[in-house]
């Protein structure tokens, strides 16, 4: 099995979110050493822009047309990333909450890979995602507490969006670990961080991992 770790924090080794993900990955490798882990740091790579030429190429292909040289170049940059994503069995997303949602680097990546014919298709019965059997873990950090029942819960557009967009691609087995609140009193923040790290370690046992054959 192969896991793709999508890193959407810009703080590198100083990232509290990443420190939680490292606990998850350490436990995963301890219990399932056969799993391949690849990393994609979205703050250090140059994602292709979603230009007019890319959009035109996309719709031309959807209508059965043929691409010219410029269209082929634009589409290849996008389709290579989408096909790279769909080639994995497990996904780990490391994403702090930004403005009640996700960092723009992760949004840009999603806008690039969510392509009909690669991650999903439209059928007579509605959209059908191709990543039906994949699993995903999303590890987030929030300054405030957005738990259900809290005053801030209605402003959580991070978890609902990630569930919706990757669910559209067929991934229904999505787990979340939220470290919150991290921008309150230092003692409260440290306790929340340690709690999230323990949840991340325990999350490994909730996944369905196939043995190496």
User: What's the CATH class, please?
Assistant: Alpha Beta
Mean pLDDT: 91
In CATH, the architecture is: 3-Layer(aba) Sandwich
Structure summary, number of beta strands: 7
Helix content: 25-40%
Care to describe what's here?
- The mean pLDDT is about 90.
- The strands form two sheets. Strands 2-1-3-6-7 form a five-stranded parallel beta sheet, sandwiched between helices.
- The N and C termini lie close together (about 10 Å).
- Helix 1 (about 15-30) packs parallel to helix 6 (about 185-205).
- About 40% of the residues lie in helices and about 20% in strands.
- The protein has one domain (about 1-205): Rossmann fold, CATH 3.40.50.
- The relative contact order is 0.17.
- It has about 210 residues and is of the alpha/beta class.
Produce the secondary structure layout.
Layout: E1 2-7, H1 16-31, E2 36-41, H2 52-62, H3 69-86, E3 90-96, H4 104-113, E4 120-123, E5 126-129, E6 135-141, H5 158-168, E7 173-179, H6 186-203
Parallel strand pairs: 1-2, 1-3, 3-6, 6-7
Antiparallel strand pairs: 4-5
Helix pairs in contact: 1-6, 2-3
């Amino acid at each position: 099995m192969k896991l793709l770790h999508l890193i959407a924090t810009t703080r590198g080794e100083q990232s509290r979110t990443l420190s939680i993900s490292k606990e998850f990955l350490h436990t995963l490798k301890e219990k399932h050493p056969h799993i391949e882990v690849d990393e994609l740091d979205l703050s250090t790579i140059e994602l292709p822009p979603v230009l007019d030429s890319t959009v035109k190429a996309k719709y031309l292909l959807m209508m059965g047309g043929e691409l010219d040289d410029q269209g082929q170049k634009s589409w290849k940059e996008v389709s290579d990333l989408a096909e790279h994503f769909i080639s994995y069995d497990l996904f780990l997303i490391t994403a702090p909450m930004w403005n009640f949602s996700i960092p723009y680097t992760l949004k840009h990546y999603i806008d690039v890979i969510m392509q009909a014919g690669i991650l999903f298709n439209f059928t007579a019965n509605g959209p059908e995602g191709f990543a039906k059997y994949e699993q995903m873990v999303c590890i987030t950090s929030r300054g405030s507490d957005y738990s259900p029942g809290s005053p801030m819960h209605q402003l959580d557009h991070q978890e609902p969006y990630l569930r919706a967009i990757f669910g559209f691609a067929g991934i229904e087995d999505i787990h979340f670990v939220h470290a919150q609140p991290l921008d309150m009193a230092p003692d409260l923040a440290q306790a929340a961080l340690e709690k999230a790290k323990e949840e991340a370690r325990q999350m490994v046992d909730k996944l369905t991992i196939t043995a190496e054959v």
